Amino acid sequence: MSTTVFCAQHDIVWEDKAATHARVEALLAPMEFPAGALLVLPEMFSTGFSLDVPRIAEGEARETEHFLAGVAKRCAIFVEGGVVTAGPDGRGRNEAVIFSPAGRELARYGKMQPFTLGGESANFTAGAAPIVFPWGKCLVAPFICYDLRFPEIFRPAARARAHLMTVIASWPEGRIGQWVKLLQARAIENQCYVAGVNRVGRDPRFRYVGRSVIVDFRGEIVADAGAEEGVICAGLDLAALAEYRRELPFLEDIREDFVPTPKE
């Protein structure tokens, strides 16, 4: 099974799932995926970063989830993408959902850090904990956008020895330099690969310039999508990662036995 990760960055038709699904289909049509590869799409990839939960949430039809499952099955790959579901209180849940090559749901992660400054916390509930899921022999930990600014929530995935961390996002142009640096930092401190997948284009508030990147366990960028629609990929060398962790066993020194002591 392939250990190649693909990152697709695309423009989004605002709050229009069907139109955006068609756009993604066109972007993926020329691609030839090795069997069992992992394809990652951005946060809320079919609607844009909207706070209108009733309008964008997956209803009984589960249109976006069926779309992701269909791509996974048709291409014989694993697929991760961002969706919104609605809770009983009407608030949304910003999620990354992963489907297997059989088209079955493999894992689902809820964004732990809703973006308070942008109004997300008022309209969305926070996820409870990080998760790790198996992609063949590779362990993958998915995260979403604003999570990236909170390294402590990545640490449980590092303790689980995740080989790859994915960060799907709607990260605006004004802070794009920080996006790349933070992705590199998460790779370095957790000694793992990191795939950051951002969108391009505009929504009613912001402009997005992509910069989806795949970063290796040394913090080096091995693939960069730049500012246009497109797909990048990189093969993950799990043997080299294992050797790097053996040579530099920094993760073994993670401490869990202390809390800050308040000053009297």
Descriptive report:
- This protein is α/β, with parallel strands linked by helices and 264 residues long.
- It has a single domain, classed as Carbon-nitrogen hydrolase (Nitrilase/N-carbamoyl-D-aminoacid amidohydrolase), CATH 3.60.110.10.
- The model has no long low-confidence stretch (mean pLDDT 96).
- Strands 5-4-3-2-1-14 form a 6-stranded mixed sheet.
- It is 24% helix and 27% strand.
- The protein starts with a strand and ends in a 17-residue tail after the last helix.
Itemize the secondary structure elements and their pairings.
Layout lengths: L3 E6 L7 H12 L9 E3 L12 H4 L6 H13 L2 E9 L5 E8 L5 E6 L9 H4 L9 E3 L2 E7 L10 H5 L4 E5 L7 H15 L2 E5 L2 E3 L4 E3 L3 E3 L5 E4 L5 E6 L2 H10 L17
Parallel strand pairs: 1-2, 2-3, 7-8, 8-9
Antiparallel strand pairs: 1-14, 3-4, 4-5, 6-7, 9-12, 10-11, 12-13
Number of strands: 14
CATH class: Alpha Beta
Portion of residues within helices: 10-25%
The dominant shape is globular
Q: What is the string of helix and strand elements? A: EHEHHEEEHEEHEHEEEEEEH
Summarize the structure.
The protein is α/β, with parallel strands linked by helices and 264 residues long.
